[in-house]
# Entry
Amino acid sequence: MSLQRGNFGIEFDERPGFPYRRLLWTAALIPLAAVALVLTRGCAPEGEGTAENNDPLTAARFDAPEVRVHRERPSFLQHLFRRRAETGAPAAAAGGGQGDAGEARGAGWHAAGGARQTPGAKALPAEVRRLLELAAAREADGDLAAAREALRKALVRGDAQELRPFVERKLGAVNVALLFTDRPAAEKARHRIAPGDLVGKLARRYGCTQEYLLKANGIDRPEALRVGREVWVLTRPVFELTVLKRDSSAVLTLNGRFFKRYPIGVGRPGESPNGEYVVRDRVWRPAYRAPGVGEVPSGHPNNILGAAWLGLAAAEGTPVAPGFGLHGTANESSLGRPSEEGRLRFGNADIEELFTLLPSGSRVNVAD
# Structure
């Protein structure tokens, strides 16, 4: 119903008309509702969200404790105010010579390249900075076990995810140093050699490899094992490797905790099937049988297997993949990208390290 001017002033017109005013009110309310939605909806700052959504490890069977991190999802207004506070933080910290790179220098890792590897856009959260400084101090004192604990705490913090690559590198280096040097660690024990002890016998008893026993104790050859000598052993270690093809990396865990991340290269699509496997064959300096050529010895430029081969057997529920395994490569420029040769490639130094750590039966998960 509309209003019309008639003979007696303003009169009602019984004819139906188009509700222009109602349409105008509706059009005005739409942008208001959109603004209200943006202000109240949850949003994640750059690089955030839950660690479960961001970390590709959760796409695999293995879910490390380090990636089960609760992350806050603030509203837009909280996000806006926090951004303003953060943009002012570097200026406030500049008076003390501390940006993100300065924090790393304060942690004592500038010489190790840490300052160059950490992001420089924002200042470190106070607790993250404290943990990194603590780890650096403990490492300088030679207390690698305490340094590792501080790094583990930093790794699981939701506000340290931008630093995760740096923390992983430091944690991997500390883990390797703990296992291969004369330092105590929770996973290690001392064993006094008794008559009849052989390297192979000790490896089977403690569940580690012969190569580890020799390398960790500085023994050149098995027959140099002397009665009465104390040696370091790993006590029933549980190593598990998770290969992440899209990420071009592989994560090694020890007893369910992050140990080290390795860069990898992936062969032709379909030749590295997803699934669960176990290490079956361990071959040092493997020969390569090239189609139409025959056997290519280790060290030859045409041998694509590198320093070592870890053959994989499919676990229950995974289709059999003949000739599937992990191997090294001298062409480290091929890491991080697909290749027409090989399956799952590691740098020679990395595959040598894995060969030393992973006994037969160790689990290997392959995921996209």
Q: What stands out?
A: Residues 20-40 form the longest helix (21 residues).
